[in-house]
Fold this sequence. Notes:
- With about 110 residues, the chain is an alpha+beta fold.
- The chain has one domain (about 15-110): RelE-like (YaeB-like fold), CATH 3.30.2310.
- It contains four helices and six strands, in the order βααβαββββα.
- The protein has helices at about 15-30, 35-55, 60-70, 105-110, and strands at about 15, 60, 70-75, 75, 80-85, 90-100.
- Strands 1, 2, 3, 4, 5 and 6 form a six-stranded mixed β-sheet that branches.
- The longest helix is centred in the middle third of the chain and has 20 residues, at about 35-55.
- The relative contact order is 0.18.
- Mean pLDDT is about 85; it is low at about 1-10.
Amino acid sequence: xxxxxxxxxxxxxxxxxxxxxxxxxxxxxxxxxxxxxxxxxxxxxxxxxxxxxxxxxxxxxxxxxxxxxxxxxxxxxxxxxxxxxxxxxxxxxxxxxxxxxxxxxxxxxxxx
Length: 112
């Protein structure tokens, strides 16, 4: 029997602000041991792929959804929470924050 290779076709879009969030995270991770940084980056990458494969994962953010008029969800990725819009044709990640941060007001301002 021939070996089958299944390729998942997934995609997710990152807003300009989410790209800046990632840059901030990478800058921070440069200061910790490489193996820990690689684990954190791996989890963030895996979560982004999961969002592309299943755009309804994570917690539904009903307050943000009402406030912004677009469906917002947010899965955890280690100690980070990824906020994204459930949109077509692909989900859009608009913020990535460490869970220790106060997020509500910042998210409401930047997602508009």
